[in-house]
Task: structure prediction
Amino acid sequence: MIFKDNKHAQQWEEAVSAAGAVRDDGTIKGDFGASLYILTGLPGVYSRAQQHIHPGYIDFEPMFHMGLSSGETVLVALAGNLYNGGFFGGYTPQDIVSYCDTDGVELAARALALRKQRLDINTIYD
Result:
């Protein structure tokens, strides 16, 4: 399983559904899937960020005003970048390594790989 735990998997599936990111053939739009993987994998962030996930789009700008830690800020910026190419300006991979714990670095690395994969909602948990 690519998720940290069952809660992460459930929140990701909920977020993907809320965003309308599942295509008719069951595949996940890569930009949504990778971004939401990060947002749902950060303890305590998804409960605050989910109000900014809408059918057809994710509104990242208000997320930066949620009182995030340095590591959370870097990862939310990466999620925004994986979604639409914005928000990661001024950050480097070194910032991920410096500000994030081991779980955060792993979350970032896995999200980068997921961005290019063809994810199928029906087989993602295998």
Observations:
- The first strand starts at residue 53 and ends at 54.
- The first helix runs from residue 6 to 19.
- Helices lie at 6-19, 30-41, 46-49, 70-84, 93-99, 102-116.
